[in-house]
Write a structure and sequence with these properties.
The strands form two sheets. Strands 3-2-4-5-6 form a five-stranded parallel beta sheet, sandwiched between helices. It has a three-stranded antiparallel beta sheet with strand order 1-8-7. Helix 3 links the parallel strand 4 and strand 5. The protein contains four helices and eight strands, in the order βαβαββαβββαβ. The protein is globular. The chain has a single domain, classed as 3-Layer(aba) Sandwich (Rossmann fold), CATH 3.40.50. The longest helix is centred in the N-terminal third of the chain and has 19 residues. By secondary structure, the chain is an alpha/beta fold.
Length: about 180
């Protein structure tokens, strides 16, 4: 296995999270009529971090927040070599008439976001849906999907693999680029 190249170290990672928080504050103030939805499993790590950071920055106690599993909405869940492991959906609210911000770690082909939009319909009709991606792999889309908030944009070949590591799981926050899938 080849060694990954660090493209975002822990200091720049923290700055990126803060920048994304301030972009959201510029557009949503105190997040009235707005909810956050982390796309399970890896998008919920991004949403957890941003949700906690925003509560701290704004000195508020709550922003409506849920986590959505999209495993069985994916267009490839039946054609995988090994079964997919579903995550828990934790959404105690409807999205009818609300501004919804979806969170994912890496935006690649757009298929995860497509599945998320389909799953989201079971929770009502939002007023508006936006996407925050910690990493945007530009030029690799299969579908016409783009992020409204981007932490870091990278141009990578299809064979390359982008991995987001989290302090809680991996010991340190960083983003790595591997020349091939690991």
């Amino acid at each position: 296995m080849s060694k990954g190249r660090v493209i975002l170290n822990k200091e720049r990672f923290a700055l990126t999270i803060d920048r994304l928080c301030h972009q959201l504050i510029e557009n949503y103030d105190f997040f009235d009529n707005t909810c956050f939805i982390g796309i399970q499993p890896r998008g919920s790590l991004v949403s957890d971090r941003i949700h906690q950071r925003l509560l701290s920055i704004l000195n508020i106690s709550e922003i409506e927040y849920g986590k959505l599993d999209i495993t069985f909405y994916r267009d490839d869940f039946r054609i995988r070599n090994k079964p997919l492991k579903a995550s828990v959906t934790d959404m105690e609210f409807l999205v009818d008439g609300k501004n919804v911000i979806l969170f994912d770690d890496v935006l690649y082909t757009g298929r995860t976001v497509q599945a998320t939009l389909t799953a989201l319909q079971h929770y009502g009709r939002p007023q508006k849906v936006e996407l925050l991606a910690l990493v945007d792999r530009r030029f690799n889309r299969h579908l016409p999907i783009r992020a409204d908030y981007i932490g870091y944009a990278i141009d990578a070949l299809d064979e390359a693999y982008v991995k987001v590591e989290w302090k809680e799981l991996d010991g340190e926050d960083k983003i790595l680029l591997y020349p091939e899938k690991i």
